[in-house]
Amino acid sequence: MASKIEYLHIQELYGQKNYHISLEDNQLILVGENGTGKSTITSILFYVITGQWKNLWKFKFSSISIGVDGKEYKITREDVSKLVDVDFPASTTQYIIGRLNDLGLEPEEALKEWGPQLYREIAVSDRHAPSLNPSAVRKVLMELVDTQVSLFDEPSNSIAEFQRKIDFHVLYLPTYRRIERDLKAIFPDLEDDIKKFNIRHNRYSSLRKHQELVEFGMQDVMNMISSTMKSLETSFRTSLDALTGGYLRVILRKEYERTDISILAEIKEEDLNDILAKIDDSVLSALDQKALRETIKTFSERQPQSEIDKLSAHIITKLILLHKAQLERETKVREFAATCNRYLKGKSFEFNSTNFTLPIKPAKDDPAALNPLEDEIKLSMLSSGEKQIVSLFSHLYLSAHDDYFIMIDEPELSLSVPWQKTLLPDIMSSGKCKGLVAVTHSPFIYSNELESKAHSMSEFLRD
């Protein structure tokens, strides 16, 4: 059960406004025109729940209270200043704090991942960096961890306790990601600089419990698809090797005599074809596969009698169970493809479970297909709206996490009206989303079952 964020209270935002923001079932859609403060509220919530105190400090406020699972946690501006101010005596410490912020790492996370690679990232990536040896950097990290603990070591409303309560991964899609995309079109060299930064910044992303999806990079999607396909193939090959490698043990221990073969009566022709298509000829030749089919047909009519029949029944049963386990592992890929295909026009993701590939294929008989003669459509050729859809759902379905709290600013950008109506419901129905905060000025975004979660900014303004 994911933690429930119930409310966010901000006192004296920019010295004058008080907001009492309420969430229902971890869901909120903030509605309002540009300039009403929707994005500001969302950014503050993001920085609070992810502990990005340096970024939170940029906003002027007197205090922030957040309710989680029936308990209130409060942080004042003075508390935040202790984390980002120059209370640490040495400029070296400030430099390390800045480097950690660039890498998106908390001091405690850096200590857990401490090693030569991380040392180089922190200490020697900048020619203007102070001269630091590994022991000095590690000492500062330990001091930072101790300082953070002591700053928030309150028994009733500890921020440290609050951060431990946040048991989901936060995926934030800010509006400025489109600005970055446009800048790269104007300044081509900027793309290389951004890629270099992202490589450094994302190297330790597995340690962080939050991620800003600042651009819909198709290279990231390609990497996730490739990694997923390799993982599926490896798991299948490993399971098959374990099965074939255990033949001798099965024979010596006569394990085949204890096998429940009732599953043989349930096997379908298409499932059998799928199983055999994945097995190399070196394991089962064409003649072996033909014999296997005949054996299955025989066992559907009578029980195996001889030792060799029982052994064959055992092997076939194990192959079927292997196939069922593989189908379970492939579920997220099939769901990803099916969800994206509801948005793609004239093209679709086609998962090949035999060769473990997931290309986008043009529709041969669809007038909406711009290039029906192409064998495959590259991700880079998708429209901006299609890229937004594919990138978002690849994170939901193909990443290692299934506990996302998604924060998305103006999801309607680049999306047609029908897509706007289905986007948020599709996010929630993925089974991977434990919370959702969206900012919009389009009524179509909440013209669906989430309409009750939509509120104007004025509803939350207090005297």
From TrEMBL:
InterPro entries for this protein = AAA_GajA/Old/RecF-like, Bact_Antivir_Def_Nuclease, P-loop_NTPase
Q: Where in the numbering of this chain does the Endonuclease GajA/Old nuclease/RecF-like AAA domain appear?
A: 4-445
Parts of the chain that traverse the membrane: none
Which PANTHER family does this chain map to?
Answer: ATP/GTP PHOSPHATASE, EXCINUCLEASE ATPASE SUBUNIT
What's the protein here called? Answer: Endonuclease GajA/Old nuclease/RecF-like AAA domain-containing protein
Tell me the organism: Pseudomonas fluorescens
